[in-house]
Predict the structure of Methyltransferase type 11.
Amino acid sequence: MGIFEDLVAEGAAVPLEGWDFSWFAGRATEERPPWGYASLIASKLAAVESALDLQTGGGEVTASAAAAVQPPLLAATESWPPNALVASRNLPLVVLAPDDGPLPFRSGAFDLVISRHPVVTPWAEVARVLRSGGTYLSQQIGAGTNRGLTDFMMGPQPVSDARSTTRAQEEAEAAGLEVLRLEPAELRVAFFDVGAVVHFLRKVLWTVPGFTVEAYRDRLLDMHAHIQEHGEFVCASTRFLIEARKR
C-alpha cells in the first residue's frame, strides 16, 4: 500500500499552471498526430503580419513555434489567471478573456488565428476577428478522447458528438468560414504508474469531471493493480486538425 500512497501523493502535488507536460516523461506517453502542429503553425506565423492564439494555456507551444520568426503582432487569450501569468512570460501580449468569447479585438484584426486543444471554439468570434482571406488553424480534441480511461474510472459513459469533426465543419461553415482541411487521428496513450494518472486527471479536467483522489480512491487502487500486473494502462486519445479560411 505504501507504493500506491506515495505515487498518488506525488501525482496530487504537481502544480497545474501552464500547459507543460514534461513531468510525464518516463511515466506516460502519448503518440503524436501525424501533421506536426508546431511545425505547421511555425510556418504560418512566419508568413503573416498578425496572429492570435486562442486559449493559449501557458503559451509554451506558440512561443516555441514563434521562436525563429515572430509576426509583428502576436496576441493570445487565456481564461484562467494562473495560466495567463505563465503565458505572459512566454508571449508578448496576453489578454484575459472567456473561452466562449467575446474576443477583445477589433473586427478583421488578424491574418491568422490558431488554437491548440481549445475548450470551446467561438466560431463567430473567430470569423469576426479574421480579415477577409485570413486563416484559422487548430488542433482539437476529438469526440470520445481517452474514453478507455474515463470508462475505467466512471463506468461506461455516452460519447457526445460535440467534439466531432462533422460538428466542427458545420459550425465553421455556419460562421462563414471555408474548411480547407479536416483530418482526424486516433493516438495511443499509455500510463506507467497511478501517480501519472492522478496528475493527468487533475490537469485534463474533462476526462473525469469532478475528479478528486478521495472520491475515486477505490478506482485508483484498481488502476494501480492493473498497472502493476500489465506494466501500463493503455487507452486512445482522439485529435483532429482543422484549417479554415474566411471568405
In short: The chain has one domain: 2-246. The first strand starts at residue 28 and ends at 30. The chain has a mean pLDDT of 96. Residues 113 and 126 are 7 Å apart (CA to CA).
